[in-house]
Amino acid sequence: MPDLPDIPxxxxxxxxxxxxxxxxxxxxxxxxxxxxxxxxxxxxxxVENAAYPLGSCAEQSAISAMVLGGGRAIxxxxxxxxxxAPCTPCGGCRQRIREFAGPDTRVHACNERGVxxxxxxxxxxxxxxxxxxxxxx
Length: 137
Ligand code: THU
Description:
Blueprint: H1 7-18, E1 31-36, E2 41-45, H2 58-68, E3 74-80, H3 91-99, E4 106-111, E5 114-120, H4 121-124
């Protein structure tokens, strides 16, 4: 098992991802960095589109990168928004995270300087529906 990145390192990576965000419509750049149970790190940024509903969130991009890289389980996730208001995942991303995380998986809403808010997935999405409901996994 490689050394797990600590929260400050995940924040640095999420900030670097946020710097790549494509968000000309909202001007709300977001970066995400997740570490898997195997200790691998994946990052993502939001990518908007002139056809507004087609935009994707930073968390969604990081999860796609994780799946492409062979990861299947999120150990911890950091999200960095544009300012000091905690950028917590949208409803759709809560469900996307749910697919690859457990109830105790921690999600940290951060700014460049540190953690603003830490919540578990179960707090973000209580009584949730997931793969187990379909007898998967
Ligand atoms: N956004 C994210 O990427 N992650 C979040 O957690 C909340 C919102 C993006 C979507 C859109 O590009 C912009 O922020 C404004 O909603």
